[in-house]
């Protein structure tokens, strides 16, 4: 035993001596140098004099020493450098003022040019303590602020700079990062480093206490908490990239496309359209897009929000399927005016707020959002190393320490999608456990000859001894060896297997075991396993085997039964399984027991269902299927708000996910009424979310919040407002003035007057309502200078300024010819009146009264007297009226007369009265009307147009066997009588030619030499033909009369005597409205009896006062001249001429060709040259009582 122990100690001492000698006599090496984040170090050796060179990852700037040297003391010289990126680039800025194009944006545009040129650097006005500020949009830990000054001329020196940083927009409320009291040289770059890294959102640069103009060409704010653009996709130009909140943003402003095109482009970058936009992100996007705005072809930019076009829901979702909770809609948006606006854009025309548009617009720009693809170089503490060089997303690096050291901290770190490593860099700690502990009956060996951290000591037991525990002990983190093993002596005897069974032994030494088994169907009676204990004995007796059978178990509905070992004897196992959405009611396994039966009872498969979900008070649940995977949704009634998850799902554990939410009822109650105002409950409720608006009555102003909302706190937002009446203050009282006030507090007016010398109160103690009107009046002889009225405005002030009173007097007024003037108050001061009067039969032209005006002159011009004259009535006479006007002075007369054929109706004369008007009324002219013409015996009277007015004509015709004695026609004259005397029809005693009988009906008329039978036949034929023709003529004439009379009555709306009817023109073949001759036939030959007679010329109707010439077929002409009538027969042709004289002819006169007295005609078959049968101008025949004149040819 002593020999083993001595050997053990000697081995340990030998190893330790070797280790100590190596440490003492080895060289002094420096540890592995520390490396900051985003930094790389190049070091080949660590011996004294070796150099470690630091470089930054792309996109970062190095601050501090770029090299460190290994010293003789085994330590690296210098201070650890730092690599950081500029987080101020193109962020929103502000400054105290702007001068000469020096906008604040010029200081963080990335251009370090020191020449201003009007648009490269910032510049403030000359002022006290000018400042410049950048908003980083979120809090960063800043180490250094780099300032580039303006070059040239030295008239904008930077001196006394203070760098302040914090979360306040007010400079002095932020902490001081750095202070530079001196002057920074023009055109240089200066790094101002914080005493220690400082956190803040706003960075201020101020020339504290200095009066001058501050000009900055570039300001860079460096932080290690943001990665550079180089970490983003290599497919995107750096100029199109932006970094914010550890996220890459690509501003695609050089091309356009639809919403789907934009998403596809962004997904190719490993991201999607920008989504999950909060206030900070929206401010960043707006700032960046404003810079791109001048190069954009449209100001609509896609973002990753949309809604399903098939749903009516107003819910919007981001492209990552999360619901949009915070929105930034522009005015009157979303409107979805065409029902297809299911996508969202940022609208540059509305401050980059949201606008809903159609998703198929194919020309819009977009913004992509994606995470960086790699992490930067990890930071390392001194003496640590990292073996891996893979820094891609999701990769894992491991830190290692030198031999004898242990890692203190995170051994492994993972590259996150933020572009940064999780955890922190660990450190190394040196650990020495000294010599390992001794174990009896064993020897120990140091594996690598050391006793420091991680060293291993292996124990070996002596022969016939068994190791109990681990044979290796390790030097741990706390400088202690792990528990070593022990060595114990053991050896057991042989043992046999049971009948129908077997045995398996691991050995017969201490700790070895002997395991027994039975054949299938046999039960093991006794211990299954026994072990060899110390001292050489087994822990128990060998067991026995007995056979048992249970039979096939029943199957399972909606599940399956599985015989695990495909047997049904003892210890055989049957396993039951149900479908995925079923649960097993009963045991999942059954075993063939020793009594030959399967354990328990067969289970059944039940559909997994959840209990009814809890129903919160004031809420309700939608969804009535409680089977597995079913969802129920919780809703709250109006006036309640939901606390908790609104959707729960039935799980396979038969429980609903989450906890039951609750509905909390909120009622804010009605607000107190507002005096002189109205409260409008926009929702007509006072529960949660209800909105009220308060308005004030006219001439009142609202003090407080006009819009209030019922909050969850059961209170209305804001405070109760008041309606304050708007009133005007006291009035000034000018000397010598009075004023009246109308419309104030129900008083109609009030007058106040102040005499000269009285003290002037500054303000009247009363106040006045809005709309009150004060009217100033001055004492007699005084005029108001200024505005005479002042009104209390809705602003509570009087408009205009108070007027003053000035005394005014006018000179003596001018006199007028043929008139006089009178001073009504015997005064000529302001406001006095002078009245003018004219002599009799004269009237005043101008103002009757004149007033003394404020400019000391009389108003208007001096009037004049003009003689009174009546108007000239000859210019406004009615039709056919004449006037004799010798004078127009007062007392003269106007005498009226009418044109020929008319008579005066009314007063024939009018006197000019003193007022310059003619007395009475103007008369009118009416046509002269004659009485009914006398009838003649043995003849007929024929009125050509059924009129009796002046100029009307009647014709006289005698019956057969009678000759007309006297004028054939008579006309109505101007004195209302018919011209000439009434003619007479006398019996003709001479030979009547062919006529032997001239009775009225003409039935006995017969030609000489004609037999009575022939005469009777001709008479009958003529009678029939005449009746038919006469009937047709009567019908035609009657229709014509009705038509023309109807037409004439429509036009005659006045006295028919004043406006005679329009003359009727005879139609062809119907020249006499009572007789038609065109269809009469010869009873003996059947020929028309007038077929050889030339037709009359179409008659012309014209003025009876004009000369007319008519021509007919036989050359007889008639001439009319005024009141006389002559006949002149000559062959002058078929033309008619008329010359109008006087006032014109009455329209009721119808002219027609004159007809000579009827003469016996020449019938066919007779000798027309026989002296007995010829007349001077033709012959006359009577047919059925109608006289027909036949002209000789």
From TrEMBL:
It comes from Meganyctiphanes norvegica (Northern krill). One of its GO terms (molecular function) is metal ion binding. Residues 28-85, 373-430, 431-489, 490-547, 548-607, 608-665, 666-725, 756-807, 808-867, 868-927, 928-987 form the Sushi domain. The keyword Transmembrane helix applies. Pfam families: F5_F8_type_C_2, Lectin_C, Sushi. SUPFAM superfamilies: C-type lectin-like, Complement control module/SCR domain, Galactose-binding domain-like. This is Uncharacterized protein. CDD domains: CCP (cd00033), CLECT (cd00037).
């Amino acid at each position: 035993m002593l020999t083993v122990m001595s050997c053990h100690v000697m081995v340990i001492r030998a190893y330790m001596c070797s280790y100590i000698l190596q440490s003492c006599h080895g060289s002094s090496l420096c540890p592995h140098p520390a490396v900051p984040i985003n930094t790389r170090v190049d070091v080949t050796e660590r011996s004294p004099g070796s150099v470690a060179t630091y470089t930054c990852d792309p996109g970062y700037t190095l601050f501090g020493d770029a090299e460190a040297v290994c010293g003789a003391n085994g330590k690296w010289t210098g201070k650890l450098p730092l690599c950081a990126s500029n987080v101020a680039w193109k962020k929103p800025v502000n400054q105290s003022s702007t001068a000469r194009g020096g906008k604040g944006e010029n200081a963080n545009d990335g251009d370090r040019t020191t020449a201003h040129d009007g648009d490269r650097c910032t510049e403030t006005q000359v002022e006290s303590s000018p400042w410049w500020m950048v908003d980083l949009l979120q809090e960063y830990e800043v180490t250094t602020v780099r300032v580039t000054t303006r070059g040239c001329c030295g008239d904008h020196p930077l001196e006394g700079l203070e760098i302040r940083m914090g979360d306040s927009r007010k400079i002095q409320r932020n902490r001081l990062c750095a202070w530079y009291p001196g002057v920074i040289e023009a055109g240089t770059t200066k790094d101002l480093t914080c005493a220690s890294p400082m956190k803040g959102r706003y960075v201020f640069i101020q020339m504290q206490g200095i009066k001058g103009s501050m000009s900055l060409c570039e300001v860079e704010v460096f932080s290690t908490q943001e990665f550079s653009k180089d970490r983003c996709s290599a497919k995107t130009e750096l100029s199109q990239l932006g970094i914010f909140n550890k996220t890459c943003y690509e501003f695609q402003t050089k091309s356009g496309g639809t919403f789907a095109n934009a998403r596809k482009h962004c997904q190719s970058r490993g991201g999607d359209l920008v989504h999950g936009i909060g206030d900070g992100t929206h401010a960043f996007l707006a700032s960046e897009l404003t810079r791109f705005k001048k190069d954009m072809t449209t100001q609509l930019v896609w973002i990753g929000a949309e809604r399903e076009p098939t749903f009516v829901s107003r819910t919007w979702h981001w492209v990552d399927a999360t619901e949009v909770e915070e929105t930034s809609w522009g005015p009157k948006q979303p409107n979805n005016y065409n029902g297809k606006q299911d996508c969202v854009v940022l609208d540059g025309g509305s401050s980059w707020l949201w606008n809903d548009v159609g998703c198929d617009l194919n020309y819009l720009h977009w913004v992509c959002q994606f995470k960086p693809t790699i992490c930067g170089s990890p930071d390392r503490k001194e003496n640590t190393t990292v073996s891996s060089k893979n820094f891609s997303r999701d990769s894992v690096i491991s830190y290692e320490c030198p031999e004898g050291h242990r890692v203190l901290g995170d051994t492994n770190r993972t590259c996150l999608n933020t572009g940064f490593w999780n955890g922190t860099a660990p450190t190394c700690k040196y650990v020495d456990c000294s010599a390992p502990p001794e174990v009896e009956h064993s020897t120990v060996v140091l594996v690598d000859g050391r006793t420091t951290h991680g060293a291993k000591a292996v124990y070996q037991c002596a022969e016939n001894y068994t190791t109990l525990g681990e044979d290796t002990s390790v030097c741990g983190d706390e400088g202690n060896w792990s528990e070593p093993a022990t060595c114990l002596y053991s050896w057991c005897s042989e043992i046999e297997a049971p009948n129908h069974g077997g045995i398996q032994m691991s050995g017969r030494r201490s700790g070895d075991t002997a395991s027994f088994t039975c054949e299938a169907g046999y039960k093991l009676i006794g211990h299954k396993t026994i072990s060899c204990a110390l001292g050489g004995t087994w822990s128990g007796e060998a067991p026995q085997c007995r056979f048992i059978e249970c039979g096939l178990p029943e199957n399972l509905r909606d599940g399956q039964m599985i015989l695990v070992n495909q047997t049904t004897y003892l210890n055989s196992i049957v396993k039951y399984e149900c479908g995925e959405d079923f649960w097993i009611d009963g045991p999942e396994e059954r075993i063939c027991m020793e009594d030959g039966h399967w354990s328990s009872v067969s289970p059944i498969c039940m559909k997994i269902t959840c209990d009814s979900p809890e129903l919160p008070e004031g809420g309700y649940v939608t969804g009535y299927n409680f089977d597995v995977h079913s969802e129920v949704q919780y809703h709250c009634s109006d006036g309640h708000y939901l606390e908790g998850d609104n959707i729960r799902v039935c799980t396979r554990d038969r429980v609903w996910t989450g906890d039951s939410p609750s509905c909390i009822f909120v009622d804010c109650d009605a607000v107190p009424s507002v005096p002189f105002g109205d409260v409008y409950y926009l929702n007509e409720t006072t529960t949660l979310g209800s909105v009220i608006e308060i308005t004030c009555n006219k001439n009142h102003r609202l003090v407080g919040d006009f819009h209030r909302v019922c909050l969850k706190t059961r209170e209305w937002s804001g405070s109760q407002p008041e309606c304050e009446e708007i009133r005007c203050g006291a009035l000034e009282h000018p000397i010598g003035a009075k004023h009246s006030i109308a419309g104030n507090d129900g008083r109609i007016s009030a007058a106040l007057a102040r005499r000269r010398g009285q003290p002037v109160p500054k303000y009247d103690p009363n106040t006045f309502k809005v709309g009150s009107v004060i009217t100033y009046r001055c004492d007699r002889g005084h005029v108001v200078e200024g505005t005479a009225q002042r009104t209390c405005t809705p602003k509570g002030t009087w408009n205009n300024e108070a007027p003053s009173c000035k005394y005014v007097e006018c000179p003596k007024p001018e006199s007028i010819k043929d008139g006089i003037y009178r001073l009504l108050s015997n005064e000529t001061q302001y406001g006095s009146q002078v009245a003018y009067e004219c002599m009799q039969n004269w009237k005043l032209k101008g103002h009757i009264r004149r007033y003394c005006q404020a400019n000391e002159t009389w108003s208007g011009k001096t009037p004049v007297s003009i003689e009174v004259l009546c108007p000239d009535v000859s210019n406004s006479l009615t039709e056919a009226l004449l006037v004799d006007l010798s004078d127009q002075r007062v007392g003269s007369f106007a005498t009226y007369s009418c044109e020929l054929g008319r008579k005066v109706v009314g007063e024939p004369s009018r006197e000019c009265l003193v007022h310059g008007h003619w007395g009475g009324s103007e008369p009118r002219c009416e046509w002269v009307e004659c009485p009914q013409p006398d009838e003649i015996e043995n003849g007929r009277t024929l009125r050509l147009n059924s009129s009796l007015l002046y100029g009307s004509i009647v014709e006289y015709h005698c019956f057969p066997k009678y000759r007309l004695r006297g004028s054939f026609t008579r006309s109505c004259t101007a004195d209302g009588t018919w011209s000439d005397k009434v003619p007479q029809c006398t019996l003709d005693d001479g030979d009547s030619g062919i006529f032997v009988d001239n009775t009225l009906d003409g039935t006995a008329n017969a030609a000489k030499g004609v037999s009575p039978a022939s005469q009777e036949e001709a008479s009958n034929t003529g009678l029939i033909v005449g009746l038919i023709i006469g009937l047709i003529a009567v019908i035609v004439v009657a229709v014509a009369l009705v038509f023309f009379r109807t037409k004439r009555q429509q036009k005659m709306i006045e006295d028919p005597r004043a406006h005679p009817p329009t003359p009727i023109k005879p139609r062809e073949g119907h020249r006499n409205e009572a007789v038609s001759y065109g269809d009469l036939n010869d009873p003996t030959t059947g020929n028309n009896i007038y077929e050889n007679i030339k037709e009359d010329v179409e008659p012309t109707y014209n003025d009876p006062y004009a000369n007319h010439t008519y021509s007919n077929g036989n050359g007889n002409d008639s001439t009319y001249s005024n009141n006389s009538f002559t006949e002149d027969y000559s062959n002058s042709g078929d033309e008619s001429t008329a010359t109008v004289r006087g006032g014109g002819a009455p329209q009721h006169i119808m002219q027609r060709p004159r007809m000579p007295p009827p003469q016996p005609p020449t019938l066919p078959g007779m000798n027309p040259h026989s002296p007995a049968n010829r007349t001077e101008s033709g012959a006359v025949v009577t047919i059925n009582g109608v006289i027909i004149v036949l002209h000789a040819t």
